[in-house]
Amino acid sequence: MTPFPDQPDRVSEVGAPDRVVEVGAPDRVVVVGAGPAGRALSHRLAHRGVAVTLIDPHPARPWRSTYACWSDELPDWLDPSVVSAEVDSVRVIGHRRTEVHRGYAVLDTDRLQETLSVVGDSPLVVCTAEAVAVAPDGVTLDDGRRIDGRVIIDARGVGGTGPRQTAWGIVVPTDVAAPVLDGASAILMDLRPADPTVTGLPSFLYAVPLDGDRVLLEETCLAGDPALPLSELRTRLAQRLSRTGIDPALATATEKVSFGLQGASRDPWHRRPTMFGARAGLMHPASGYSVAASLATADPLAAAISAGGDPTRTLWPHSARMVQRLRAAGLAVLLHLDADDTMRFFDDFFDLPVHRQRAYLSDRDDLRGLLAAMLTLFTATDRRLRRHLVRAAPHLVGR
Questions:
Q1: pLDDT by residue (tens digit) across 338-352?
Q2: How far is CA 224 from CA 44, 228, 326, 334, in A?
Q3: Contact of 367 with 321, CB cutoff 8 Å
Q4: What GO molecular-function term can you cite, just one (predicted)?
Q5: Which residues 6+ apart lie within 8 Å of 254 measured at CB?
Q6: What is the mean pLDDT of residues 63-84?
Q7: What pLDDT score was predicted for residue 263?
């Protein structure tokens, strides 16, 4: 909500528009960034009765991205109505075809944003302004105001440098997508080349139901530095779909994706104020997934803040730091794989037992499980892929 022009240090309180409260006070928690991570943390703090100020230049801007995750990653507190589609298994296609028997959910973005924005008669206020400086004890806004708080959380998302993930997608009716799905409930990755003439960085098809009537068909560059441009991905998607007789002109909507895969720091546990969400490295650098991790982490972090604990220590125990280093090594591997190596890598990865896959993809502080998964994968790969894995070792350096 917009600050009152005659009272520049005060805003209306969410759920009580006729009331006015101070946005900056020593007992308040200040969260900067109203994306999924910032909204989720603010929601859980407010649920616990913690006074929160949420700062964003466009706090009500609709979220347009498609968010999806493994079903078992979603926290219990999240309203089940935010799941718009869910399947029991997904297919991965490389040199061979693998059915991954782990539930996968696609979220209703509008419903998710609505759910995280509604907190009833809670002590949450929203300040419509841009943060130009975020310090451990306060935030300076673009109009010169300073918002103080006992805890400052920076959840402004990722920057624009370094490796990126890009994608171009179309939304089509379910019956139109049937030839692509070929009996699968969803396709997590079809890593086969979009066309025999394709060269350069690999890309894959991602095909998932958005609801009972629509399917997203998306050509994705998993990781590149630089990543494939959207124009190339659009061309590849058209080439791929032409093999099954699907005309991209049948699309009811399109989706463009481009985001950085690394947080604002390689060692967010050494940075103040505390960062959260993709900015803090909660995005998996080797997959690009972050929303479920932010949702799952929001409530434990809110509990720690409510109890007076150190939010950075809560987010980053030693095991989580090491897991983050190992995941960064995974990104380094992907950046150096050609299309054939990428297919063989994911053939081997998705042949792992699901609990090993989960340890690598989802469990951000299960160091023992991650090491076991990586060792199992290493022994399963051929000599060529092992060399790529060994070359990623320098990315493990850090404290």
A1: 999 999 999 999 999
A2: 35, 7, 18, 8
A3: no
A4: intramolecular oxidoreductase activity
A5: 168, 169, 170, 171
A6: 97
A7: 80
DSSP state of 352: S
| ω into 26 cis (within 30 of 0) | no
**Residues paired with 318 in a beta bridge:** none
Are 126 and 34 in contact by the 8 Å Cβ rule? The answer is: yes
Domains of the chain and any CATH numbers: 10-62+110-158+262-314 (3.50.50.60), 164-260 (3.30.70), 336-396 (no CATH)
Predicted local confidence at residue 6, as pLDDT: 30
> What is the Cα–Cα distance from 214 to 208, expressed in whole angstroms?
9
* Token pair belonging to 264: 């604002």
pLDDT band at 26 (very low <50, low <70, confident <90, very high): low
With cut-offs at 50, 70 and 90, classify the pLDDT of residue 266.
confident
**Would you state the pLDDT for residue 267?**
86
Cis peptide before 209 (omega within 30 of 0): no
C-beta atoms surrounding 122 within 10 Å: 21
SS3 for 286? coil
- Phi, psi dihedrals of residue 325, rounded to the nearest 5°: -60, -45
Token pair listed for 305:
């803040």
pLDDT digits (tens, 9 = 90+) for 186-237: 999 999 999 888 888 999 999 999 999 999 999 999 999 999 999 999 999 9
Work out the burial of residue 225: count CB atoms within 10 Å of its CB; fewer than 13 is exposed, 13-18 middle, 19 or more buried: middle
Residues written for the chain: 399
Give the pairing type, strands 52-56 and 124-128. parallel
Rg (CA), the chain: 22
For residue 93, give the amino acid letter: I
All residues at 6 or more sequence positions from 46 whose CB lies less than 8 Å from its CB, including other chains: 52, 119, 122, 123, 124
Q: Compute how many other C-beta atoms are within 10 angstroms of the C-beta atom of residue 6.
A: 6
pLDDT reading at 5 higher than 80:
no
Please enumerate in sequence order all residues whose Cβ is within 8 A of that of 294, keeping only pairs 6 or more positions apart, or say none: 36, 37, 40, 41, 276, 277, 278, 282
